[in-house]
Design brief:
Oligomer: single chain
Strand order of the largest sheet: 2-4-3-6-7
Helix content: 25-40%
Radius of gyration: 17 Å
Order of helices and strands: EHEHEEHEEEHHH
Mean pLDDT: 95
CATH architecture: Roll
Number of strands: 7
CATH class: Alpha Beta
Distance between the termini: 19 Å
Largest sheet: 5 strands, antiparallel
Number of helices: 6
């Protein structure tokens, strides 16, 4: 698939915008004397943007992974939008905590933010989360869904999500591949998300039905 670009009327974040988010995130760091941690729940697990010096499982309460972010680029098109996961309110989410190197933290966050959000208004908002680990609760940076974003799809039934993932594709790849990679790498770390397994069966059935 060719990259069709951001589309008409779309406003992208510029260097000043990313600098603002980096400054804001660092200024609100709730535990600056501790390692800076990143909470990964989806593609950051199998395609980490940043190097890390340690990792461990973590549980974020009050948030759950959901295919609630519409994509008209990357894994979808303007004619056939796709869906990607985001952290939405409610429930809980098991993921992976990465300890980031302490040097050049601002540059690391700038690189990370340029991957995680591109358009205005922001869709995946950087936010400090309280995450449970085997050694106790720690602070970690996560990306949560901005429900005010026009790309917020809301809480969709799994069969509807499956229909989208089975058919969506952009210049980065397909929605089905995105789901499969996430499930494989969660399972490899001992994290079994029953809803994702159920969704994977539904997507497979949709693909079989259209083959």
């Amino acid at each position: 698939m060719a990259d069709t670009g951001p589309g008409p009327g779309v406003i992208l974040h510029d260097d000043a915008d990313y600098a603002f988010w980096v400054e804001r995130t660092l200024a609100t760091h709730p535990a600056p004397d501790e390692p800076t941690r990143l909470f990964a729940y989806g593609s950051l697990i199998w395609k980490a943007e940043l190097p890390h010096v340690a990792e461990q499982p973590g549980l974020a309460r009050g948030w759950h992974r959901a295919f609630c972010l519409r994509m008209t680029r990357f894994r979808g098109t303007h004619d056939r939008p796709g869906l990607m996961m985001a952290l939405d309110r409610g429930g809980q989410c098991r993921g992976v905590l990465y300890d980031l190197p302490p040097d050049n933290l601002g540059q690391q966050l700038d690189r990370l933010f340029r991957r995680e959000f591109t358009v205005k208004p922001i869709n995946s908002m950087p936010r400090w989360l309280r995450v449970e680990t085997a050694g106790g609760k720690v602070w970690a940076l996560g990306f949560v869904m901005n429900r005010a974003s026009p790309l917020y799809a809301g809480r969709l039934p799994l069969p509807e999500v499956a229909k989208v993932l089975a058919r969506s594709c952009g210049h980065v790849g397909t929605g089905a591949e995105y789901l499969m990679n996430t499930v494989i790498h969660l399972e490899a770390r001992g994290i079994h998300d029953s809803r994702l397994w159920q969704l994977q069966r539904l997507v497979a059935a949709e693909i079989d039905a259209t083959a």
